Amino acid sequence: MRKFLTALALVCLWPALASAQGEWRDGPALLSPRSGLAAAELEGKIYAAGGAGLTQPRNEVEVFDPDLGEWRDVTALPSGLERFGMTAANGRLYAAGGYAAREGVRPIADMWSYAPETGVWQRETAMPGPMASFQLVGHDGHLYALGGETGTSGMFVFDIEAREWTARDDTPDDVSRRGGAAVVVDGRILFIGGAHSGIATERVDVYDIASGTWSQAADMPTPRAGHAAVLSGGRIHVFGGRGEDLSRTLSDHISYDPVTDSWRAESELRSPRTDAAAATLNGMVYLVGGGAGGGFFAPFTAIDVTDIFVPDGH
Known about the structure:
With 314 residues, this protein is mainly β. Helices cover 6% and strands 41% of the residues. The N and C termini lie far apart (42 Å).
């Protein structure tokens, strides 16, 4: 009953909250369309890697340099990957897990890191277990791998200096959701949405890194999985994804204020989009790739589009 009343209240309040914020602009097209990719900002550039291919996961990595205004190829991933985790930390890119070209439909535990100055991917210590459709985020010299419904449950923590993983078995079972999104803000990891057993949720779980404790934040207005999320201007922006039964691809764009623990509507996407990637650069959000369909249909609906969200006042 409580969740029903909460949902009803959000529905009633949503029109009042739904004033468009910011605008969308055209960005440079990727060199190749891809869905189920990963993206991260490192040293003033955005890297987009992997994604679903027609027959197997892709290994291409593209970098966007704002001074050049276009994407270009850099050293490919050591293996084709889709629905994997990638983040920037300590001056390197880290890519881990996912579905690998050599393994078919099975997730992997492998991890590699990339140094922009040398253009080389080097093998890192593998995760304690395989993970796919999960999230990898970095904070204060550590990486956190969480979520994912296929492979290993729980959360893994990687000490970058020691190059060692630790498995956190005290992670709530409800966090084992595929297609969720994770964002670090003020020393907390917010794990947003995702699906379990084919049903998406509006739930937002919060991990306090300093205390090692879990709690919950305000639910999203609607459930979703396969969405992209990124921190920009102190707000967490969430883009598209698929609805509760995963049959409908969404075009909405919402954002969360961690200070007031509240959500609001933002300027809608130009078209329905799922399994895209997002990164922030110079105060603007770059929404990269994705497609209109997920799962088996992802490679057939993949796009090469980069849309740029410019917040008000930028």
